[in-house]
């Protein structure tokens, strides 16, 4: 997008809008005290490239508090609360304000911010900018009124923001492209439009990861080539002792930083893997024994080190990890390999090591937003271990001729939790990341889940799964809407890690039993088809539901007609018991 003109963005956005018309609309409300309407086409275009059918709608000019009470139907809210225009013409008189007037302004603005946060407490996602004095600051004057004002307001925001608010520092855009390219004073003085097209292009990139994550588009795996990607040199030619990745050598320090970034990502739940044309024994030796190697065996979730075509290996990696190809980011130094993957597997995001090697760390850092995860859960921290245990399960499966014998051998145990507030971050994360076994693909934030858990109008079931190989963690979620005359399954999903063990049927037995005990007579559910969830199209019919509406995917079950699964190899436990 960086090289496109604004008119080209307008044209391409119109085409994308038409192509995505069948998709659900993701509505973003923008509230501001300056003119920011040029963000609309740029942000919509950027998100529609990711197949997120976004539409931006703007509140009235300088009406943030009042408009914040009118955005209940929005999926997300973006707030441009510009310091220079907290009151009309503030930038003209801020440095002349006496101390008591400045204090009054601080208190007034803090009250307005607090009211806005209260109005938006049920919003799924709110993006709020930290106040910056940079545009109108007196560069040579320390502790100017504008700087004091920004510091006071930012302290208040940090201390009082709700969990659904993400703070964004727009000075990152200033630092990237320069302040002069970011602002347009001619437009500001004529129409209160402070920021330039270049600013909005880069700003859209800055906040895009938040929307991508909310729509289940965050990347899950970072896969590296090895030679001249994780270390300087070619292992098969230069040898173990000659490859460079030391923090105390050049260019080794560059590759050391790359590995450091990868390790940091792994600690936030990103899967780290290798896909390299090399002798596997040689690479294993480097991973285990090289003194400068940071990406050790415990960090690596999967390795495909062989002489097979990399496109084939990457497809196998996606299959082995049970993730979509569009969840993978692949890094390689070879133009041949990167172009091959772009052509053969366009779903994969491909990053090529820059020819100017000193640009490599910045290139990777600038793409870390692809993996944005607002809530790192215990399951994220154990993800590499969990996937390795899954590999052990697959190896064990090969020794059984009957799938039921294999499942029986696992000693499966399912712990079911009901309305457990301690699990909210992981439950929210499951809705945002799960695509395959997800009947409706609804995305919910922590705030949304908190509302369901705390309300008697809903019942929220979550379950963890363990077996003889280990604990898969919290991997399933069902949300029941009890407000309707006919109770309704709003959400039913499971992580791909536990698919294929019939756990979903045993959980449904438990939920139906609860509904019967509560003297409910029937329940309905909806299956909303997506390109990724076709495998669950018949799930409700397999659970004794009958299809009421073929077009809308609506199913109904009279509870007396429910047939239990009679699965004996899964043990059910009450997770709410201490």
What can you see in these coordinates?
There is one protein chain. This protein is α/β, with parallel strands linked by helices and 578 residues long. The protein folds into three domains: 6-214, Rossmann fold (3-Layer(aba) Sandwich), CATH 3.40.50; 221-371, HAD superfamily/HAD-like (Rossmann fold, 3-Layer(aba) Sandwich), CATH 3.40.50.1000; 396-574, Gcn5-related N-acetyltransferase (GNAT) (Aminopeptidase), CATH 3.40.630.30. Helix content is 39%, strand content 19%. It is built from 23 helices and 19 strands. The strands form three sheets. Strands 11, 12, 13, 14, 15, 16, 17, 18 and 19 form a nine-stranded mixed beta sheet that branches. Helix 22 links the parallel strand 15 and strand 16. Helix 5 runs parallel beside helix 6 and helix 7 packs across helix 10 (197-214). The longest helix is centred in the first third of the chain and has 21 residues, at 99-119. The model has no long low-confidence stretch (mean pLDDT 93).
CATH topology of the largest domain: Rossmann fold
Uncertain ranges:
none
Task: Look at the structure and name the CATH superfamily of the largest domain.
Answer: SGNH hydrolase
Share of helix among residues?
Answer: 25-40%
**Which band does the percent of strand residues land in?**
15-25%
The CATH class name of the largest domain reads: Alpha Beta
Label the CATH architecture of the largest domain.
3-Layer(aba) Sandwich
Query: How many domains is the backbone divided into?
Result: 3
Task: Say how many strands there are.
Answer: 19
Structural class: alpha/beta
Please give the largest β-sheet.
9 strands, mixed
Radius of gyration from the alpha-carbon trace, in angstroms: 26 Å
Secondary structure tally, helices: 23
Morphology: globular
């Amino acid at each position: 997008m960086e090289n496109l003109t604004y008119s080209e963005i307008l044209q391409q956005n119109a085409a994308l809008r038409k192509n995505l018309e069948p998709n659900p609309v993701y509505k973003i409300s923008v509230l501001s005290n300056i003119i920011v309407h040029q963000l609309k086409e740029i942000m919509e275009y950027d998100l529609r490239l990711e197949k997120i059918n976004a539409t931006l709608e703007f509140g009235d000019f300088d009406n943030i508090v009042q408009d914040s009470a009118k955005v209940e139907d929005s999926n997300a809210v973006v707030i441009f609360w510009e310091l220079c225009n907290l009151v009309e013409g503030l930038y003209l008189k801020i440095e002349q304000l006496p101390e008591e007037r400045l204090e009054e302004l601080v208190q007034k603005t803090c009250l307005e911010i607090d009211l806005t946060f209260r109005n938006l407490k049920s919003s799924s996602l709110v993006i709020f900018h930290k106040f910056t004095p940079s545009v109108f600051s007196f560069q040579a004057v320390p502790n100017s009124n504008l700087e004091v004002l920004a510091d006071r307001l930012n302290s208040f925001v940090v201390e009082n923001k709700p969990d659904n608010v993400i703070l964004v520092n727009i000075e990152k855009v200033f630092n990237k492209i320069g302040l002069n390219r970011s602002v347009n004073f001619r437009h500001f003085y004529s129409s209160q439009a402070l920021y330039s097209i270049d600013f909005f292009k880069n700003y859209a990139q800055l906040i895009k990861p938040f929307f991508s994550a909310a729509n289940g588009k965050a990347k899950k795996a970072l896969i590296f080539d090895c030679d001249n990607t994780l270390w300087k040199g070619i292992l098969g030619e230069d040898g173990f002792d000659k490859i460079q990745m030391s923090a105390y050598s050049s260019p080794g320090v560059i590759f050391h930083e790359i590995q450091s970034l990868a390790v940091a990502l792994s600690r936030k739940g990103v899967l780290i893997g290798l896909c390299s044309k090399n002798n596997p024994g040689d690479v294993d030796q480097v991973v285990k024994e090289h003194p400068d190697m940071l990406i050790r065996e415990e960090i690596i979730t999967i390795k495909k080190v062989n002489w097979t075509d990399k496109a084939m290996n990457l497809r196998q990696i996606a299959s082995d990890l049970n993730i979509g190809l569009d969840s993978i980011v692949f890094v390689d130094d070879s133009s041949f390999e990167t172009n091959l993957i772009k052509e053969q597997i366009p779903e994969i995001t491909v990053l090529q090591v820059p020819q100017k090697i000193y640009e490599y760390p910045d290139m990777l850092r600038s793409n870390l937003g692809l993996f944005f995860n607002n809530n790192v859960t215990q399951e994220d921290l154990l993800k590499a271990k969990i996937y390795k245990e899954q590999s052990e399960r697959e190896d064990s499966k090969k020794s059984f001729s009957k799938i039921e014998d294999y499942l029986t051998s696992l000693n499966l145990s399912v712990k079911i939790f009901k309305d457990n507030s301690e699990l909210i971050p992981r439950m929210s994360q499951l809705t945002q990341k799960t695509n395959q076994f997800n009947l409706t693909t609804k995305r919910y934030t922590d705030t949304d889940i908190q509302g369901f858990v705390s309300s008697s109008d809903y019942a929220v079931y979550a379950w963890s799964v363990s077996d003889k190989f280990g604990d898969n963690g919290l991997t399933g979620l069902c949300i029941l809407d009890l407000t309707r005359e006919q109770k309704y399954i709003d959400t039913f999903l499971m992580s791909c890690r536990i698919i294929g063990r019939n756990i979903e049927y045993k959980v449904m037995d438990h939920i139906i039993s609860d509904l019967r005990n509560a003297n409910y007579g029937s329940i309905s559910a909806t299956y909303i088809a997506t390109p990724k969830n076709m495998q669950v199209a018949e799930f409700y019919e397999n659970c004794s539901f009958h299809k009421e509406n073929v077009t809308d995917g609506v199913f109904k079950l009279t509870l007396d007609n429910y047939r239990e699964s009679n699965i004996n190899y899964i043990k059910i436990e009450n997770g709410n018991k201490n």
